[in-house]
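Suppose you are handed only these lines of text.
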Amino acid sequence: MEKKRQIALTAVNSRSSHTNLALYYIKRLLKYQEGTNTDLIELTINENWKQSLMKLTKQPYDYYLFSVYIWNSDFIEELVPLLKKICPHSKIILGGPEITYNLEKWKKTGTADVLIQGQGESFLPQIFSWKSPVFRSRNTPLNSVPFPYEPEDYANLKGRLVYYEASRGCLFNCSYCLSSCSDQKLEYRDPDTVKKELKVLISIEPKIVKMVDRTFNSRRDYAREIWQFLIDEKSPVPFHFELHPLFLEEEDFSLLETAPDDLFHFEVGIQSTDKSVLNAVDRPYNWPKEKENIQRLCSLKNIHTHLDQIAALPLDNKESAEESFNEILSLSPDEFQLGFLKILPGTTLAKKAETYGMVVKKSPPYEVVQTSTMSFTEIKKFYNVETDLGRFYNSHYFHHTIKYLLENSSSPWAFFTALMEFSPADKSVKRWAVLGECLLKYGEEQNSGDREYLMDLLRLDWCPFASGQNYPPFLKRNDGEATKVNRRAAYPFFSENIAGFTRRDYNRSILFVPTNERLIEELNSNAILFYRSDSIGKYKIDLKELSSPEENLRQAVQPIKEPDRIS
Ligand code: SF4
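From them, the structure of the protein bound to iron/sulfur cluster can be written out as follows.
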């Protein structure tokens, strides 16, 4: 009997919770190829290279397939020559966007036996007998690509970030984006097939399903049909979509309002709010309309919103980038990602980069460090703001405090640049207590507002992240005994009314008692108990009712439905 080909599909992910859609497709397709035996080997870019080599050589393989992107390109470039030396009889095959659009570089490295240019699905089974160094793959109609995941994969996907595509291609032609130089026309997978497959994904219980569609709502009726399906399914698994705000219509808002909390995570790439900057990268401009729609989206408290800016685009300067930053952050998204332009090989912009005086890192991530309209010194300021944006805003550590401080600053940019003076220079410092103290110092020096109010806001923000009953030293108060008495008094309500109540959970729970009148009024409560079990439940506690002789616990303790926002 002929020996089976042993194939290692090697996914090099950026985190262990991530997965690789392309290799799951190939795994699925290879399963039905006679005479092949396939293993999916998952590594991460942070992994020790020796460990990686050990995993890859646990058994002999005839073929190693890697999918190469900008985030794993350096790792693969270093690993593959070692692998080739250790296993000289194995064939190394590389594919993915880094190979497709940066072919000449990879040809020069000479480390692979075959480089695949184009999509991954159509090269089988020819690839195993392919003799030339480059294989040019054809596009496969999306409706004939199989569902990538099989029952044997489900256990491995549970609790992780799983990718899925309902469409390929993009309507737009932004000059910095690889989608604009692809010959992929916009096509959609049959919606009934999509619904069937999404149902399977929900049953696998991943942490989140990330739809890789470039602009999911570019066909409005299609997007609505899928959103309605997920709402009807009452999916406990959240779904992440990339949207264009200009395609949102009244009907979308009416539908989205009915979605359960946190089912939909929407990412909107705004990139810049400046007309000339967007024109320079061939991106449509209609900021007033986009702003209106994003404002409506962000005001839907059941949707998680993520907005993006790209700094240092062609013609972008200090003023336009700061203005974009202010405009975007003033929409109060749940997350705001400030990124920096990358000049990806193969894009239209790569051919024009010199025109804009762009100084670019020659290897991944191909980031711009200076342009003719933005000096490195100016860009450096954005690097620092980006770090603080991550640890103070996107971390959600200081939800109430940041909201208050932003409202009391002349602009979001002014706030973040002033905060730089107080935030730790070491960018790896992310501890709540260290950062919280920086905000207090900032508040004391920069903000003319109420110090006691600020201290209370910080205490309130600390409660969901607290590791014990005591506040960090800079927020310490002297009412420990009173808090203990009130906790004890509230205990019977929790032990009698909370399903799955345990004393251990109650002991880990924190009673927040504001001292500041303004906050008591805004919270409409004089105490909040953060009940810590698997997740955090919040309960308003009326201390007067709790201590009255004819105490009525059910009246004294009320669950908070929308815990994170002070109205
Ligand atoms: S940046 Fe987004 S909208 Fe523009 S071409 Fe790329 S995928 Fe399409």
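What can we learn from it? Residues 170, 172-174, 177, 179-180, 214-215, 269 surround iron/sulfur cluster (CB under 6 Å). The chain has four domains: 5-140, 149-394, 395-467, 477-559.
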